[in-house]
Write a structure and sequence with these properties.
Layout (H helix, E strand, L loop, with lengths): L2 H14 L15 H4 L4 E5 L13 H12 L3 E5 L14 H6 L1 E9 L2 E5 L13 E4 L2 E8 L4 E8 L6 E8 L5 E5 L5 H5 L4 H12 L3
Parallel strand pairs: 1-2, 2-9
Antiparallel strand pairs: 3-6, 4-5, 4-7, 7-8, 8-9
Length: about 210
């Protein structure tokens, strides 16, 4: 329900930076021909089956992969990775976005830690963050995904899960964070302003 507000916030930020923005819910817009018009793509809370019910998205994933490797940016929030959870091996889309959220989520306090991975999108984060956001379990990471933030769920099994990561395939840039389930996360002074929006800018070469 918060996705429209997130789109509004992100479009406002991008416009402030001088970008033109289009939003779409049409999977067919992720084509090689159409993507050639853009500098970046954002997958904003595109949960479960992002290319349509029962669709595995081979054509869209191939177009996204080529777009990124050719120099495009890919930005994803929250359940942009919570997709194709039963696929084994993981759906190629999860390789492009850098990972997959599956087999559990947590609603409550988590102790989050910035990893030793030096990157502009995490440079302003404190070493530790207490989060009360909904977070998903990352049960798969692409071989070249570099984790920026991990969070340990409180109670139960104390799962330690990757929350934010980036990739640099070919000439492109991919940034994903499991933060930003709701629009308040995007405007948050720490995980929003000092991390997620920096990730958005980084995918576009800012």
């Amino acid at each position: 329900p918060s996705v429209p507000a997130q789109i509004t916030l992100l479009k406002s930020q991008l416009t402030t930076w001088g970008y033109e923005v289009e939003d779409s819910v049409k999977p067919e817009d992720l084509s090689t021909t159409n993507l050639a018009r853009f500098g970046g793509v954002g997958m904003i809370n595109t949960c479960f089956e992002p290319f349509g019910t029962g669709k595995t998205g081979e054509a869209q994933t191939a177009a996204l992969k080529a777009f990124v490797e050719g120099g495009g940016g890919l930005f994803g929030t929250h359940c942009a990775s919570v997709t194709f959870q039963s696929a084994e091996p993981p759906n190629p889309y999860n390789g492009v976005i850098g990972g997959r959220g599956g087999h559990g989520s947590f609603e409550g306090k988590s102790a989050c830690t910035k990893t030793a991975e030096a990157h502009v999108t995490a440079a302003m984060l404190p070493a530790t963050i207490d989060s009360t956001r909904n977070l998903d379990n990352a049960d798969y990471l692409a071989d070249d995904a570099k984790v920026l933030v991990k969070c340990k769920w409180s109670g139960g099994e104390m799962k330690d899960t990757a929350v934010s990561w980036y990739r640099t395939p070919g000439k492109g840039r991919v940034f994903y964070t499991n933060f930003a389930k709701v629009d308040a996360d995007l405007s948050d002074a720490t995980v929003g302003q000092k991390h997620t929006l920096l990730g958005l800018g980084w995918t576009l070469g800012r």
